[in-house]
Amino acid sequence: MILLTSEDASLMDRWAVAVGGRGTLIRRVSLLAEAEGVLAGRRPEVMLLDLSLDDLSGAAGIAGLLSFSPATRVIALSHQPNDDEGIAALRAGARGYCNAYIDPRLLAKAVSTVQNGGAWVGRRLTDRLVALVGQPISEQVDTDYGLDVLDALTAREQEIARHVGSGSSNRAIAQRLGITERTVKAHLGSVFAKLGVHDRLQLALLVTGRMHYTGPTTPVH
User: Fold this and answer.
1) Which residue from 76, 93, 121, 190 has the least number of CB within 10 angstroms?
2) pLDDT at residue 215 in the model
3) Cα 188–189–195 angle (5° rounding)?
4) What is the pLDDT of residues 112-168, one digit of tens each?
């Protein structure tokens, strides 16, 4: 079930068009107390949450909602998105953050991404988050839980993964290694597949030992 929570009925209509279909069960609520009741009783898989909801206290209120259903994946939607609010939402437990009026096709992709264990945030915010979790390369942890998480990668892929872990952008990595950004992106695509991560943020968390390594989700040939 997908829970839509907003005081704006037309906004929920927009969201419903984006995520409905194929038998998806959708529940709409406009009050915080109603949302808490649905979370506690129905444990929805995904919640689309309007951060302007009355009594929510903005991004900080996400943690309270998740106490009713910790497994629910929350996508926080903002009428005036900004990086600081996005970081606050993610710290409070949200799995995604975007504009409340995001293109419906992108919203459908965001829901699919969090359902599959990923996170959905804008590119600029992703780069900032990667920088926040980055460490100097010499201090990175590659052997968390007794596993060398980079063993499956080629030497160049390992080098690029380490730079992502240190907080470097694709452009900075390309300049440092004397290659093109397109080449960096191609290597990262291979790294993501081999390590079973969805994006640069997850890679940075994995390389710096902040995320448990469970191996690739599918065999890599």
Assistant:
1) 190
2) 59
3) 80
4) 989 988 888 877 777 777 666 654 444 444 444 334 678 889 999 999 998 888 778
Length of the chain: 221
Largest CA distance in the chain: 55
Distance, in Å, from the CA atom of 138 to the CA atom of 168, rounded to the nearest integer, reads 14
Query: What CA–CA distances, in Å, run from 120 to 37, 73, 123?
Result: 26, 11, 9
- Token pair, residue 86, equals 């996005």
Phi, psi angles (nearest 5°) of residue 56: -75, -30
Single out the residue in 120, 141, 176 at which a domain terminates. 120
- Residue after which a domain boundary falls, among 96, 120, 144: 120
Query: Are 116 and 200 in the same domain?
Result: no
**DSSP states of 158-187:** HHHHHHHHTT--HHHHHHHHT--HHHHHHH
Domain CATH for 111: 3.40.50.2300
Helix axes 123-133, 200-207, angle to 10 degrees: 10
DSSP-based helix, strand, coil % in the chain, nearest 5: 50, 10, 40
Residues 6+ apart with CB under 8 A from 28: 3, 4, 5, 9, 12, 16
CA distance 159 to 174: 11
Q: Quote the tokens at residue 11.
A: 């906004």
Residue 214 placed within a domain = no
Residue 75 burial (10 A CB sphere; 0-12, 13-18, 19+): buried
